[in-house]
Design brief:
This protein is mainly alpha-helical and 165 residues long. It contains five helices and two strands. Helix content is 77%, strand content 5%. It has a two-stranded parallel sheet. This is Outer membrane protein.
């Protein structure tokens, strides 16, 4: 048992020494991605790419709401057959709207993932460039560690580096 405790203590001491090494930096990838101009450009690109489809969905929503309002207003004047016809039309409009909205959502998520991959490649390259330039032995993601001194965080340097590009 004493050997186990000694081995554990030695391992913790070695780990503590590694973490204290000056050559280890930390980055907050979420903060970097949120604050770089490339992310804003990507958001605008995707917004433009899907604007027509989003407009169409909004137009269909308005048509459906107008038709529902018209049916509600004219309910007393409609025959049972006309009510059924309007009901079917509303169901068809709703099904079409849901299908288009789901397709838009899936396509949007797919394109967002594609663009995120490109951004992460750019961020990774910037992190590597800064790490090599400043002599860091390792760079860890802030989310995968419990604690790091604030001065070991190079996220701001990465954002600044990418803002110049």
């Amino acid at each position: 048992m004493k050997k186990l405790v000694a081995v554990a203590a030695l391992g913790m001491a070695m780990l503590a020494g590694a973490v204290q090494a000056k050559g280890i930096a930390v980055v907050d990838l979420g903060r970097i991605v949120k604050n770089i101009p490339q992310s804003e450009a990507t958001a605008k690109l995707l917004q433009g790419e899907f604007a027509d489809r989003l407009d169409e969905i909004q137009r269909l929503e308005k048509q459906m709401a107008d038709k529902q309002e018209e049916a509600r207003r004219n309910e007393a004047l409609l025959t049972e057959e006309q009510k059924m016809k309007v009901g079917r039309e509303l169901q068809e409009m709703d099904a079409s709207l849901k299908l288009k909205a789901k397709a838009l959502q899936q396509d949007g998520q797919r394109r967002q993932a594609e663009e995120n991959k490109k951004i992460f490649v750019i961020v990774q390259k910037a992190i590597s460039e800064i790490a090599q330039k400043e002599g860091y032995e390792a760079v860890l993601d802030r989310q995968s560690i419990l604690y790091a001194k604030p001065e070991s965080d190079i996220s701001a340097k990465v954002v600044e580096h990418l803002s110049k590009k």
